[in-house]
Every structure is written in structure tokens, then in C-alpha cells.
Amino acid sequence: MFDLSFLLEDGYLKLFRDGVLTTLRLFAVSGLLAIVVGVLLTTLRALPVKLFKGFVIVVVEYHRNVPVLVQILVWYFGVPQLLPEGARDWINAGNTEFFFATVALALNAGAFISEDLRSGLRAIPHTQQEAAWSIGLTYLQSLRYVILPQGIRVALPALLNQSLLLFKNSSLAMAIGVHELLYRTRQIDNLTFRTFDVFLVATILYLIGTLSLMALSEHFAKRRTAPSGV
User: Fold this and answer.
1) How much of the chain, in percent, has pLDDT values that exceed 90?
2) In whole angstroms, what is the distance from residue 14 CA to residue 18 CA?
3) Gyration radius (Cα) of the chain, Å
4) What pTM was estimated for this model as a whole?
């Protein structure tokens, strides 16, 4: 029989609440940055410039083949050594752990998002680009106003799956001391020695988050209307 009444003592519920809020903030900020990174990488790869394509391939393959936890540790322990002292001091003056976890998670998710968007762009008939050129749009304008919006719509289910993965990967930020949900869970476990009960609560909270994202994903998938000709 489970007894979770201990959570009402000594501010344990507050610790859980703080952990959930930090997880949601980490997910939201890194998710928004990941979208920007993904669109930027997709645009660079779509341009007829070999240097840009090579750069994007290197970025994508790095994030695809190196474990996310290693990427976070590289950003937290390795990258600051390469920065100028002024930049290092500026970063260290804030929430360093949260900053580097956000950067690592955003770049990782952004690399995968760029691949999803690229698959979406491939589904758009080439005649659409030719039609855009015929009305006087440049290559970048046709990409921005015609091709990319349709590609995003086609790739929407895959993009929502990436958001689910990003939410789960946010727990890895615990490794560098970000006070997110898993960090707070272990903290409460160390204080109460109620390991199973504490991790049961954490599991339920993670399930609520992931199931909510899955429901959102299904909702958008049902509403999605395939563009004409796709």
C-alpha cells in the first residue's frame, strides 16, 4: 500500500512543483530555440551552396550519432574553456547549468527537426517552386513564402514527435545540476528514503507531460490537411 502523505511534510510538494516548473521552462525555451535552429539548418541545406550543405551535414551527423548526455557534458565542461574570459564571466554570472543544458538540447533537437523539415520539403512538388519563380519570386522568397510553410505542415506529426523526445531528454540536464523534475526527485529520495514512492510520483508527472504532448500531436495530425498535389 502506497503512502504518499509524507509529501505534505517539510516542503516536498514545493520541491516537486519547482522541479516541474524548471522542466517545463527548459522544454519551452529549448523547444523554441530548436525550431529556429531547425528552420535555419533546413534553409542552409536547401540553398545551392556546397559549403552550407557540408556544414549542415556535419552538424546533423554529430547530433545524430553522439549521445545527448555527452553533448550536454561537452557544452557544460568543454565549451566554456574555448570562450573569452569576458564571455565566460557573463555566462557564469547567470544560471550556467540551465543555459548550457538549453543550448545542448536545442541544438540536438534542432538537428533532428531540420531532417524532418527536409523530408517535408521533399514532399512538395517541384512545380510549386517553378510556379513561384514564374511570378517573380527569388529562390529565398519562394522557399520562405511557398515551399517552407507547406513543408512544415507535412512534417508536423514528426515535429511533434520531436517535441516528445525533447521533453524526455530534458531529464538529462540533471547530470550538470539543473534543478528539473528528476533532480528534485532524487533530492527528495535522499531526504526521505522513500525511493519507490518518490519515483512513482515522478513517473506519473512525466507520464502526464508525455501523454499531453501525444494527445496534442494526434489532435494536430487529425486537423492537418495535405497540401494540394502532395
Assistant:
1) 53
2) 6
3) 21
4) 0.86
